[in-house]
Write a structure and sequence with these properties.
By secondary structure, the chain is an alpha/beta fold. It has three domains: 118 residues, no CATH class; 230 residues, NagB/RpiA/CoA transferase-like (Rossmann fold, 3-Layer(aba) Sandwich); 61 residues, no CATH class. It contains 24 helices and ten strands. Strand 5 and strand 6 form a beta hairpin. Helix 16 runs parallel beside helix 19. The longest helix is centred in the N-terminal third of the chain and has 21 residues. The model has no long low-confidence stretch (mean pLDDT 92).
């Protein structure tokens, strides 16, 4: 079964799972209400979006310059920058660091980039204990699942679901009390921070002029993961660069508001390298792995380049009617929703993942809410166009459109097929798609052309 067939199978299941739909719509509605309130914190939100879009556009036009500036400034304070062209290369860098440090336990904060390179599975193969410290990530790790949402990994689970997971995996009495569940996580994770040899984080932004990584969070787990262990590894896509420290004033607030409706998230930290001689706290070694993994291929395309401006706020997922019906796991990719449908075919291969770009109503809501003004609907259409130009449609699809085109080119060909045969053709072609859940339309026995010839006098 290929990726498209897996997608269609899971979509069929999730779209008609009423309990799933109720849970996800309830949770997303709460986020959307919070975001609507949060937007009032901006005097001119459209101006903020335009400024952010302009800055990210300038960065992408000069990405090589800013990346080298970041590397020079970061390494001047004792840090080490590693360039990974593929996810396998990133995994190997991490393994070399862990092996050298004789690592047994790794604590990891929430990071979609580590999900992208399959880090959890890789560490499991190497028999290294890897502990997710973000509450949502910790829950889905216990459940043996992948993150459901870019910002909220366990959005698809109710507190009752979480209680059952904790009861099964942690051998504790069932409870759906959120405070007790959160306290259980805190107690379980405290010792991990102090015993782990290595902490791994992502990076919300890479700051070129100071050579720092910026991490924003609400739980403090990323800060603990980056300070208690002796070694800190940060993994970030090369597109995460912003030019100046002052730019955080704009991007942090946009990210917080678009993601959760907050003016600012609770913990905001900039790391500029390992502990200096005059400092009392901090890691002894710090590495930043800059991941390409297909990004330069997107960068080379002038029209698709803007998709790299994404700041991973998840706003486009929250407004997408398709995402709210099929859920994050149906995509079978690290990045789901509209932005995932745009970039995943380029990161993972257009042949296997072209179908994601068709999983959209093109309603335009995603482009409206994007804080950096990425034209997501247009990029989805460009992906569809590319898949057709490369001849990646299936045989049945090609044949259907060839017959349709041939028939529609001449009026006589349209008239040649009577209503009986046209209705039969519609049923054959659309029964397993449109007709599976809806009543098939029936063409009238007399066409408009025939009616006009009869009544035009």
């Amino acid at each position: 079964m290929n990726e498209q067939q897996n997608f269609q199978k899971d979509v069929e299941k999730k779209a008609f799972d009423m309990r799933h739909r109720q849970t996800i719509n309830h949770n997303i509605d709460k986020y959307n209400q919070a975001v609507a309130r949060g937007l009032h914190n901006f005097e001119d939100h459209e101006l903020a979006r335009s400024r952010a879009s302009y800055i990210k556009t300038q960065v992408l036009e000069n990405l090589d310059k800013y990346l080298l500036q970041f590397e020079e400034n970061f390494e001047s304070r004792g840090g080490k920058v590693l360039w990974a062209e593929t996810k396998e290369e990133a995994q190997q860098y991490i393994w070399e660091i862990l092996r050298k440090a004789n690592t047994k336990i790794v604590v990891k904060s929430k990071s979609m980039t580590t999900e992208e390179i399959g880090l959890n599975e890789f560490l499991e193969e190497k028999h290294i204990e890897n502990v997710e410290t973000d509450l949502g990530e910790y829950i889905v790790q216990l459940a043996g699942q992948k993150p459901y949402h870019i910002v909220t990994p366990a959005m698809h689970l109710s507190r009752g679901d979480v209680g059952k997971i904790f009861e099964e995996k942690l051998n504790m009495p069932y409870t759906d009390n959120p405070q007790f569940l959160a306290m259980t996580c805190r107690n379980n994770l405290r010792d991990k921070y102090t015993t782990a040899e290595v902490g791994i984080t992502g990076a919300n932004f890479l700051i070129a002029d100071v050579g720092g990584i910026a991490i924003t969070e609400n739980e403090g787990n990323a800060r603990l993961s980056a300070t208690f262990p002796k070694i800190h590894i940060a993994i970030a896509g090369i597109e995460k660069i912003i030019p100046n420290l002052e730019d955080l004033d704009l991007f942090w607030s946009l990210l917080a508001t678009s993601g959760t409706g907050q003016r600012m998230t609770i913990y905001n930290t900039v790391y500029t390298g390992a502990k200096q001689s005059f400092e009392t706290d901090g890691t002894e070694e710090m590495y930043v792995i800059l991941l390409d993994n297909g990004r330069t291929k997107i960068l080379a395309d002038e029209q698709k380049r803007q998709s790299l401006a994404c700041i991973r706020c998840g706003a486009c997922l929250n407004v997408c009617p398709v995402y709210k019906n099929i859920g994050g796991h149906s995509y079978h990719t690290t990045y789901s929703g509209p932005i995932g449908s745009v970039i995943s075919p380029h990161l993972l291969g257009m042949k296997d993942y072209k179908h994601l770009s068709y999983a959209s109503s093109l309603c335009g809501a995603c482009g409206t809410v994007c804080p950096v003004k990425i034209d997501l609907p247009q990029l989805l259409l460009k992906n569809r166009q590319e898949s057709v130009e490369k001849g990646l449609q299936g045989f049945a699809e090609k044949l259907t459109f060839q017959l349709w085109e041939n028939t529609m080119r001449k009026r006589a060909r349209v008239d040649r097929w009577g209503a009986r045969w046209k209705n039969w053709g519609f049923r054959q072609i659309f029964y397993n798609s449109w007709g599976k859940r809806r009543e098939m339309p029936t063409l009238p026995k007399e066409s408009f052309h025939d009616w006009w010839k009869k009544n035009r006098k």
